[in-house]
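REVIEWER CHECKLIST
Item 1: Sequence provided? yes
Item 2: Single chain? yes
Item 3: Sequence as submitted:
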Amino acid sequence: MVSKSIIKYTSKIPLHSPWFIIIIFSILGLIGILNHSMWRDELNPWLIVRDSKSFEDLIANIHYEGHPVLWYFSLAMLRKIVDNPIIMQIFHLAITVVSVSVFCLYSPFNYKQKFLFSFGFFPFYEYLLISRNYAFSVLFVFTFCTVFSSRKKTYAYLAILLGLLANSSAYGLLVSFSLSLTLLAEFCFDSEHRQQYFSQSQKYDLFLSILIIIFCFLLSVYILTPPIDSYLHGGLNNGWIVELDIRHFLRSIGRIFGSYLLIIPAHKKWIDLIVCAVIALFIVVLTLLKLSKKPVPLFFYIVGNSVIFAFTYLRFLGMPRHFGHFYLVLIAALWLGSYYQESPVLLNKFSIRPNSITFVHQWHHVVLMLILYIQCAGGIYSFSRDLIVPFSASRETAQYIQNSGLNHELIVASRDANMAPLSGYLHRKFYYPQLKGMGSFTLFKKGRKDVEQDEILSQINYLLKNQDEQKKILLILNKKLNVKRNDLKIVPIKDFKRSWVDDERYYLYWVDEA
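Item 4: Structure as written out by the authors:
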């Protein structure tokens, strides 16, 4: 009855209505996220929230993660409702659906652009199916763009959104910082806006807004700063790059290319790096000229790209979920541009002919549509692939363990960092050889040590000899066992190799004394 009602209601919605996009996106998103097999980066935060002993312990554990607190606090509240990670997926779906709804209902783009963007790689796959804190970036940036005009009366709404964005992820902090600088620049240099604001705002609005932003920024930076005994530094264990490295510079520009056109140039091939860098810079320059009549959005586009690029070059090249923020900055800059009348100030200063700008607008539209078509193709492909090939073998492995009645056995699992999905799905802890004790989530800090398979078997042998009663051990590895011991009897049970993530394929063994 419910499905018939949905179909009946949907059939009444015009195909060119934004609600048509939202409803189709929501239905497909629900199908996709319930089918998605979560991996370690999704479930490790859930386990940190689940197994931290106190609030203080939770904060201490988050310090090692390289992420601010917002996602973890959200998971903590969700756990009070349902102690099952599926609620995290539903929550993540809700974030993305709201983000797409805001975009479709309030952005200045035409219907085709809204459709292509909504089913693009980042909204329809990366920030939809994979439940991470990065989906907050889309939600808060788009909401910021929607309520941007409220700054004429109050900065409080924008300050709250910037504070939330800053505490969503390190990249959210960079975008939030860029938007804050944009607001500051407009306030300082646009006297007409400043006078209008003071004539309509409350007495302490500006002070409170600044206080909110500063507090949230300091909180984010404090949590992001790794403890002394962290050896992975929140995933950034390569240090800072302070010297000029042309290849690395081109690779960093390649991340802009990848965020727009979903192709990462081969870092060993100079021709790939150079061609992709030229194309990326062409798109950037085209966008700069497109925004040249609107100084405030232009300022944001320059600062946003510069800040993220600096971080990309100096610290971390990143994965699509990270450098996808270049794409988010592009969309947000074009959106903010709709709030401003065209101004010839910059054109006159640089002696640019109006005819040239008309030409740029035409080419920019062509390039933007090309980007959106490629993004849409990438989104549909990646979404469909996830329906066919499990992202991780974790869920299938966990279901086998539960159905076979093995969940109550003593389980030795390695490598610990790849076992978070199993711990999350099975709602239990394992013995981790890396810790020489029981655990669930992984923190890369002093006390944890990577071990080889010989050491794993040695620890299992010790466990068997020191058990009160003779009992075999269930061993789970994420790589096939390739060593033997004469004093142990090892019997393969089953392996699970269908996984897009190659180090989350699992091999099960019974281990007993020989």
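Item 5: Key structural point noted by reviewer: The mean pLDDT is 93.
Item 6: Recommendation: ____
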